[in-house]
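[User]
Protein folding is very new to me. Any chance you could explain this protein sequence and its structure tokens? I have pasted everything here:
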Amino acid sequence: MILLDTTIIVDFLRGDSKVGAFLNNLQDTPTISLITEAEIYQGAKNTADLKKWENFISKLKVLPVTLEISLLAINLLKRYYLSHGLHILDALIAATAFVHHHTLVTSNTKHFQMIKDLDLKPWPLH
């Protein structure tokens, strides 16, 4: 299973046909973190964007931020914030991937590459 980072969803919403083809070819329902959903809504410029994005997100599986995910994110921040500048939202997304044993697909690998044992795949996939 894969977990899509916010960057992938943003690319799709901006009309990237490669992302659209990738999502259509997935065997499982595309999955995102609740954090990604929140980040997407934060980018809405008007109510039309908001409605369009709500419709799109309703077709995805959204994983909640649980206590286990929150505690793991805190540990990731303790380990990687000072040395690598890991941001809290990225820590929560990475922790979601860990807890659910998902591969994290992102076009922003530099935000996650320092995290040991994270199953990380750069976009575009090769």
User: Anything to note?
Assistant: Helices lie at 6-13, 17-25, 34-42, 47-57, 67-84, 88-100. Residues 2-122 form a domain with the Rossmann fold fold (CATH 3.40.50.1010).
